[in-house]
Design a protein that fits this description.
Elements lengths: L2 H12 L9 E3 L10 H22 L7 E4 H8 L3 E3 L13 E4 L4 E4 L4 H11 L5 H9 L3 H10 L4 E3 L3 H6 L1 H7 L5 E5 L20 E5 L4 H11 L3 E6 L9 H4 L3 E5 L5 H12 L3 E4 L5 H4 L4 H7 L4 E6 L14 H8 L4 H5 L12 H24 L2 E7 H11 L17 E5 L2 E5 L4 E3 L2 E2 L21
Helix pairs in contact: 1-2, 2-3, 2-16, 9-16, 14-17, 16-17
């Protein structure tokens, strides 16, 4: 079995979907790397297409055969929104990056101001890349990683796949399913969801409590299928460089949940949601009184989809993490060093762990909605970047498979954004009469009211 087929089969099985479900694949992958990135992209997009077809079939309509374009799937794993006449800012803070230490490599993730401040406090230097590099060079990698994490920052040392496989967290992740699901209690129908083949999520309310990058990719896709997506961020939180990419089709609002009034508004929104997608650390929602049981009681029948960086068990279950850090920890970023083709960590050509996990999260939401149509029951779904990384690591040993037919991807379509005109890649899949389509352009975070009442 080739890597693409194996990945798709594993994802479909993990989601509880029909392993014999048909899907037509066209085009050729474009993401060359030491790992089968195009195979991962195509498999995860195909899993959403199959889940979409399953949902449409459950409503009593014939979905037709899902179709996936490999080149477009690869494109959406990178940047789907292409500015015209303007440029998006860099998504990376100037301090973020990989640094050589005394005995290895350390990556500092400093995009969030409080994460940058934590790293600088540990290092005892100002926000200057040369000064940071000099400070890191005099320290042992693992000790620095521990110190930054203990200070509330984000860091990861470069490990090999073999080292990660025997690390306590790697062992814990290997014992977890790719997609974990728990059924929850059914509830009375309070939803305006009115599925139809062309817009299977029309009227569906999705509460988006996610940040860069996997969760926003998931909710962007749900918006493309017709869902009403409301993203909530705390005051002052911004994601320069990706807002024009990840707010497509959504409304965006802010709430301070540390304020009882803000928390009450969030609870009210949740009580009227059909789907919740969240990417906070495992203990974060529990800390504000919205833990697993509280959410299920507040909204019976809720489809609850959650993301974690390093897995849901083990000593790092509550550790902060991002795609680039997980690539370091799990050994993916060391591929160039191991092959002797690079003198520094070599990440994947795109943030593939984020993107693949995001598509799997969207597929999980669709699978949960399909289950709810049958008996009204809710469901709780759990995924992690580290578990997706393990799936990619396992696929690396498989044959690449026969390449598809080369073809230039179709021309992108015009898109209006709050920053100026842009071009949007065509959707990476379609299912019969269903086609991804976004009814709202991209906008900065916090531009809407925290309400389900539409405001434009």
């Amino acid at each position: 079995m080739d890597a693409e087929t194996a990945l798709r089969a594993s994802m479909v099985e993990a989601l509880g979907l029909d392993p014999g479900a048909p899907v037509r694949i066209a085009g050729r992958g474009t993401l060359d790397a030491a790992y089968p990135v195009s195979a991962l992209a195509n498999a995860s997009v195909a899993s959403v297409a199959i889940a979409t077809a399953g949902l449409i079939a459950a409503t009593g309509s014939d979905p037709g055969e899902p179709e996936v374009d490999r080149a477009l799937a690869d494109g959406w794993f990178g940047l789907a929104v292409q500015p015209v006449g303007w440029s998006a800012p860099s998504p990376w803070d100037p301090i973020a990056g990989d640094y050589p230490a005394l005995d290895g490599w350390v990556r500092l993730h400093t995009n969030a101001p409080h994460h940058r401040a934590a790293a600088l406090r540990v290092l005892g230097v100002a926000a200057d890349r040369d000064a940071v590099g000099a400070a890191v060079a005099g320290q042992r990698a693992a000790e620095l990683e521990d110190a930054v994490v203990a200070e509330g920052g984000c860091a990861a040392i470069l490990r090999s796949p073999e080292e990660w496989a025997t690390h306590p967290q790697g062992v814990a992740v290997a014992a977890e399913p790719l997609v974990g699901m728990t059924a929850t209690a059914p509830g009375p129908s309070r939803s305006g969801w009115a599925p139809e083949p062309a817009r299977p999520l029309a009227g569906l309310r999705v509460l988006d409590l996610t940040r860069v990058l996997a969760g926003p990719a998931a909710t962007r896709l749900l918006a493309g299928l017709g869902a009403e997506v409301l993203r909530i961020d705390p005051p002052g939180w911004n994601e320069p460089g990706v807002e024009q990419e990840m707010t497509l089709g959504k409304r965006t609002a802010r709430l301070d949940v540390r304020d009882p009034a803000g928390l009450a508004v969030l609870a009210g929104l949740l009580s009227e949601a059909d789907v919740l997608v969240h990417g906070y650390r495992r203990d974060a929602l529990e800390g504000i009184g919205l833990g697993d049981e509280e959410r299920a009681a507040l909204r019976p029948g809720l489809v609850d989809v959650a993301l974690d960086a390093y897995g849901w068990s083990g000593p790092w279950a509550d550790r902060r993490g991002f795609d680039s850090l997980v690539q370091m920890s799990t050994g993916i970023a060391g591929s160039g060093l191991r092959a002797g083709t690079a003198d520094a960590p070599t990440p994947l050509p795109v943030q593939a762990l984020d993107q693949a996990t995001g598509y799997l999260m969207a597929a999980a939401a669709l699978a949960g909605l399909t289950r709810r149509l049958a008996d009204g029951a809710g469901s709780r779904w759990r995924l992690s970047l580290a578990r997706t990384a393990l799936e990619l690591e396992r696929a690396r040993a498989l044959p690449a498979g026969k390449p598809g037919d080369p073809a230039d991807p179709p021309a992108p379509t015009p898109l209006d954004t709050a920053w100026g005109p842009a071009l949007l890649l065509l959707p990476p899949f379609r299912v019969g009469a269903t086609e991804l389509r976004w009814e709202r352009g991209c906008r900065p975070l916090g531009g809407d009211a925290p309400s389900w009442a539409l405001s434009g």
